[in-house]
Amino acid sequence: MVLNIVKLGEDDVLRKKSHPVAKIDRRLKALLKDMAETMYAADGVGLAAPQVGILRRVVVIDVGEGLVELINPEIVSQEGEVVAAEGCLSVPGRRGTVKRPEKVTVRALDKKGNAVEYQAEGLFARAICHELDHLDGIVYVDKMIEDVTEQTEQEEG
Ligand code: NI
Which end of the chain is least crowded, N or C, by CB within 10 Å? Predict the structure, then answer.
């Protein structure tokens, strides 16, 4: 089911801290599925649960290398810095540059409750940082260096 994406300014759910997932149950699996459908329907590369009004530490990402579902994700190491443009499905029609780590290692649970770890770089690393920020009530515009709003690229998360 495609869910409604909360837009910045509409609801303060985007400004709250999400709670860790305590139990991976049928409801959480349904949420993951709906979040992936919503992300693909909106042509995004990532979506965090608060963007669909759910304050849980759950993220989906697909930067063109397949769907990645992260439950209770944590960045355990990071390396380098890179400034690049990004957008957000909760801030439609805008893009801006943000400084992010070049590489990150993220640990999380998958939907079976298994510990997973990803070593990410490039757009995948950027998407992880962007989506994890959402879990702490941070929207990329808070960190934006420069507005580069022009409809030239289509990478939104
Ligand atoms: Ni976003």
Answer: N
